[in-house]
Write a structure and sequence with these properties.
This protein is an all-alpha fold. 74% of the residues lie in helices and 0% in strands.
Length: 54
């Protein structure tokens, strides 16, 4: 009954969309952060630091 409600009701479909969106966003943010950490380790940041830091 729970699976039927999840896939057929409006609120169930909205829940699935929300879960999917959060998972996709987490993957994107993890890849974005990893890329920028690698750039920072290589010294490719181009000198873009916050005021008052390095």
């Amino acid at each position: 009954m729970a699976w039927n409600l999840l896939f057929t009701s409006d609120i169930g479909l909205l829940s699935l969309f929300t879960i999917g969106f959060i998972l996709v966003m987490a993957v994107y943010l993890a890849r974005y952060a990893a890329k920028h950490l690698q750039d920072e380790e290589r010294g490719l940041s181009g000198g873009k630091h916050l005021p008052g830091t390095r």
